[in-house]
Specification:
Layout lengths: L1 H14 L8 E2 L2 H7 L2 E6 L9 H10 L3 H6 L1 E4 L3 H12 L4 E6 L4 H9 L3 E5 L3 H15 L2 E2 L6 H7 L1 H9 L5 E5 L4 H13 L4 E7 L4 H8 L24 H7 E7 L1 H15 L5 H12 L1 H4 L3 E6 L12
Length: about 325
């Protein structure tokens, strides 16, 4: 246990010069509504607007100089594409990004801003993987998975580590569940740096593969995932699932209306822009108020990359 704790401390030390230490905000009104003390770790203020900058940075920094010179590659339609591109640019490492041709132009533009070299392909997982493999063979770049990579997982856990440094007496940390990298890293941080702090996930009912996986003990998939929380449509992997199985206490499922209501509360009451996935943990806390009543609760706001062109104004 001491060895694993020390390992996480080294990860935080490694990435700190390259990321923002994001603020922790609170809201008296939301505390009253939830009947508890809520502490929001605002990764919407992270570089490139999401927690994924942490994992991408750690994964690149762990590579040898020879591997760095050949670059890194991933397939992603969203935040990790941007995170790996920006992290690579700041470390002078080439970044090759495979994106589905259906990805929003705003996301492609962001990747290009960070000097990521985009290759488009059809949106199926098979096409993404085959395209990434082909580029890897041509360039010798190292593949970095958005969530199913131990260095990425440990990097994502540094958000919860910072939160616990600011608020060491948290009873719970609640975070959204998508591909599993954030919740796996958060669960390890809660285990090694909290004082009997439990990690709980929030997940849309429409994409509840992690909830089902925790129940069945094996990785489940979604046939469809029609949720406003588009960042949470990906599934767990063989690297993060064992960590989740051992260290996550519970996953709370929330409806689309509950997510929208929580999203509106954060925008209106906290005056910060967050993406729908980030509202899922608050929705979970408000849904299960009795569980969290009079406790100290940390919430990971995972990101703030909203496609403003989709808004009515």
């Amino acid at each position: 246990m001491k060895k694993e704790k020390l390992h996480l401390e080294k990860v935080l030390e490694r990435v700190q010069p390259h990321i923002h230490r994001t603020p922790v905000l609170s809201s008296s009104l939301l505390n009253e509504m939830a009947e508890t003390d809520l502490w929001f770790k605002c990764e919407n203020f992270q570089k490139m607007g999401a927690f994924k900058m942490r994992g991408a940075t750690n994964a690149i920094l762990k590579l040898s100089e020879e591997k760095k010179s050949k670059g890194v590659i991933t397939h992603s339609s969203g935040n990790f594409a941007q995170a790996l591109s920006l992290a690579a640019k700041s470390l002078n490492v080439p970044a090759y990004i495979v994106m589905p041709d259906t990805a929003p132009e705003v996301k492609k533009a962001a990747v290009r801003t960070y000097s990521g070299k985009i290759t488009e392909c059809p949106s199926t997982i098979k096409d993404r993987e085959e395209t990434a493999n082909q580029i890897q063979e041509e360039t010798g770049a190292t593949f970095i998975h958005p969530s199913n990579d131990i260095d990425v997982i440990l990097g994502q856990g540094t958000a919860a580590m910072e939160l616990l440094q600011d608020h060491p007496d948290l009873d719970y940390i609640v975070c959204p569940v998508g591909g599993g990298g954030l919740i796996a890293g958060t669960a390890l941080a809660a285990k090694f740096f909290g004082k009997n702090c439990k990690c709980i996930g929030g997940e849309p009912i429409e994409a509840d593969d992690a909830w089902r996986s925790l129940k069945s003990g094996k990785i489940e998939t979604n046939d469809s995932a029609e949720t406003i929380a588009d960042g949470l449509k990906t599934q767990l992997g063989d690297q993060n699932f064992p960590i989740i199985l051992e260290n996550v206490d519970e996953i709370i499922r929330v409806s689309e209306e509950e997510i929208k209501s929580a999203l509106r509360l954060i925008w209106e009451r906290m005056k910060i822009i967050v993406e729908p996935s980030s509202a899922v943990p608050l929705a979970a806390v408000l849904k299960e108020k009795d569980k969290f009543k009079n406790k100290q609760v940390g919430i990971i706001i995972s990101g703030g990359n909203v496609d403003l062109s989709s808004l009515s104004f």
